[in-house]
Amino acid sequence: MNTESGTMMGLHDSGQMLADPGQDIRGRKVQDRDGNDVGKVDDLLVDTEHQKVRLLRVEHGGLFGIGATPVFIPVEAVERVTDDEVGIDRSRIQVADAPPYDPELVDRDEYFNKLYNYYGYAPYWSPGYIPPSRGFFR
User: Fold this and answer.
1) Does the structure show a pLDDT above 90 at 17?
2) Span 2-15+29-119: which CATH code?
3) Distance between CA 56 and CA 71 in Å, rounded?
4) What residue segments make up the domains of the chain, in order of their start?
5) Cα–Cα nearest to 75, from 38, 27, 25, 35
6) pTM for this structure?
7) What is the C-alpha separation between 6 and 89, in angstroms, rounded?
8) d(CA 105, CA 111)
9) pLDDT level of residue 31 (50, 70, 90 thresholds)
10) What's the CA gap between 137 and 131, in Å, rounded?
11) Are 123 and 6 in contact (CB under 8 A)?
């Protein structure tokens, strides 16, 4: 995925590993700020220019994994990580109402700008971006 910041690629598709294997949270449950299940981390989107994880791809909804749809959550939303789960600072409803991703998008920059704006975070490529001071992916 090319964006204003360069290319973002799913860790799964890149064939690469994270420098710190402890940051590979794929497969862990995602819980909202109230402890409700949101879904499961399916993949991590990596900014290939800076080699940093920028977004979680979370399989959300469906029944027993069937019919689940992917949603993207900026890493700035991650509050805590345990061996089994990832806690985010947003509600399950907010995640469900996030702008949907369509792999056939023509303007990915517009989508990612809208996504960061929806969650209330400045995009990491914007002037004056400040990396998260809390959370797992500083």
Assistant:
1) no
2) 3.90.50.10
3) 8
4) 2-15+29-119
5) 25
6) 0.83
7) 27
8) 8
9) very high
10) 9
11) no
